[in-house]
Amino acid sequence: MDIKRLPKTEFAAAVAQIAGERDIDPQEILDAIEMGLISAYKRDQKEHGIIVAEDDSFEVELTPASGSFSIFKVEDKKRTDVTPPGFGRIAAMTAKQVIDQKIREAERDKVVGDYQRKVGTLVPGVVLHIDSYKMSVGIGKTEGVCPTEEQIRNENLMLGSKKLFLITSIETDDTGRKNIILSRRHPDFIKELFAREVPEVGNRTVVVEKVARSSGERTKVAVSSSQPGVDPVGSCIGQKGSRIQAVLNELPSNEKVDVVAFAKSLNQFVVNALSPAEDAKVVSIKDGQAVVDVPESQLALAIGAGGENVRLAGILCGLDIKVQAAK
Questions:
Q1: Do 9 and 98 fall into the same domain?
Q2: pLDDT for the residue 94
Q3: Are residue 205 and residue 291 in the same domain, yes or no?
Q4: Helices (H), 117-231
Q5: Which structural domain range is residue 256 located in?
Q6: Is 150 exposed, middle or buried (0-12, 13-18, 19+ CB in 10 A)?
Q7: Is residue 270 domain-resident?
Q8: Shortest CA distance to 171 belongs to which of 143, 138, 145, 137?
Q9: Residue 136 falls within a domain, yes or no?
Q10: What's the domain count of the chain?
Q11: What tens digit of pLDDT does each residue of 295-306 get?
């Protein structure tokens, strides 16, 4: 169906108007209507006990005088009009359904496009649906998808729960639908929480250098300051722990967050990363492994439950850290 040859009917004018208002290519609307009408024809035939072969070829033609559609079967370059009696009513309904669908898709694509600029930021959302593969989340005028692998382990959100989500990407699925992908598990989720709750992080007076996270269990955040006299750790903790508490309020109740000072000296950074253990001393760093002595009284803290503290400290520093009791 060639839009250049489309007659000046009321239908054509309506297509042109909708295309202009919704910023949709008119040919895209017509192509979709053509496919919809061929599908409607096949359904109509099936309802009358006539099975149309999969490899049969059909074309749709718009009648200039009335604006109605006709179906033609194409065989060996010959066209045969196979339009069933009363198909005009079916054609009109199909065209309306296709146009309505295209309008909805165009509106959604525009909204999703607006979120492209927000990738990497937090957005408030409401949990709408949960299944074994994903969580559907209402965000603004549209929906986002939080896949299972982007959800916090053991965080049992209920329908209607209001939470913050990190927009990680816009992805197109197998059907061509664009989806806003959300996460609560990504390390940048923590980074953006600090930017939200700590003004110094928001204006980059304090910089979140690295994040090591075991979502739902423990997170370590290394921070530095670009301004002399500003305590980066103190800024993130806040007076009486108010700022870190605001971060914790958005996380599962059992997830702990350690804020440590980033250091350019790798030895010092290892010591800081093992917090809350105190008086640690680096014995050696070689071939990606660090050996650290800690007082026996601090050994359990340095290792952490299930080895989580030393493991996350290693991720933060980019090393395999082995802690041992100081002799």
A1: yes
A2: 80
A3: no
A4: 187-197, 199-202
A5: 186-262
A6: buried
A7: no
A8: 145
A9: yes
A10: 4
A11: 999 999 999 999
Say yes or no: 253 and 293 in one domain. no
What integer pLDDT is reported at residue 185 of this predicted model?
95
Q: Are residues 303 and 325 in the same domain?
A: yes
Regarding whether 102 and 22 lie in a shared domain, the answer is yes
Within-domain flag for 268 = no
Q: Which amino acid type is present at position 294?
A: V
pLDDT at residue 156 in the model: 87
Give the C-alpha distances (Å, rounded to integers) separating 8 from 12, 16, 91. 6, 10, 18
| Structural domain contains residue 269 | no
Give me the mean pLDDT over the 173-191 stretch: 90
β-bridge mates for residue 179, sequence order: 171
Give dist(CA 209, CA 262) in Å, integer: 7
Question: Do 130 and 112 reside in the same domain of the chain?
Answer: no
The per-residue pLDDT for range 42-93, each reduced to its tens digit, is: 888 888 888 888 888 998 887 655 667 788 999 888 899 988 888 877 777 8
Q: What's residue 4's pLDDT?
A: 38
Where would I find the H helices in 25-166?
Answer: 26-47, 87-116
CA triple 258-261-264, angle to 5 deg = 140
Assess contact for 143 and 129: CB atoms under 8 A. no
